[in-house]
Write a structure and sequence with these properties.
Keywords: DNA-binding, Nucleus, Transcription, Transcription regulation. Pfam families: bZIP_1. It is found in: Nucleus. The protein has 144 residues and is an all-alpha fold. The chain contains 2 helices and no strands. The longest helix is centred in the middle third of the chain and has 98 residues. The radius of gyration is 44 Å and the shape is rod-shaped.
Length: 144
């Protein structure tokens, strides 16, 4: 036997080794318990992250659906605006034609007819003068 390995029954040296073995056993037990708690915390954290990921994916899906709905609404309104612009152009042309005929008829009959010109604001409605008013926004504006 080497000097570090002595039987547990050899007097006070054996008592010391028994105490060291007991401390080593308790430390190993404590380390195992600590590792078990650490694994448990890690597992709980992983579960929380998976739940958060699921919630974020659900929210992302909802937002993508809302964005898609807004895009569809925009395309619908844009198409309607194009139709209205074409109708406005046609009606403007008709009005100018009728005004021209009215002037011709008035000149032929010697009558004075005051036909006002079509205001530019009607021909370009997107440039209408608008009073400056505050725009109020709320969370309800984005609900569909």
């Amino acid at each position: 036997m080497t000097s570090t390995q002595q039987p547990a029954s050899s007097g006070s040296g054996g008592q010391r080794y028994a105490t060291n073995d007991e401390r080593k056993r308790k430390r190993m037990e404590s380390n195992r318990e600590s590792a078990r708690r650490s694994r448990k915390r890690k597992q709980q954290h992983l579960e929380e992250l998976v739940n958060e990921l699921t919630q974020l994916q659900n929210q992302s899906t909802i937002w993508l659906e809302r964005i898609d709905a807004v895009g569809r609404n925009y395309r619908t309104v844009d198409a309607e605006n194009n139709v209205l612009r074409a109708q406005m152009a046609e009606l403007t042309e008709r009005l100018e034609s009728l005004n021209s005929l009215t002037r011709f008829w008035a000149d032929a009959n010697g009558l004075a007819v005051d036909i006002p010109e079509i205001p530019e604001t009607l021909l370009e409605p997107w440039q209408l003068p608008c009073p400056i008013q505050p725009i109020t926004a709320s969370a309800d504006m984005l609900q569909f």
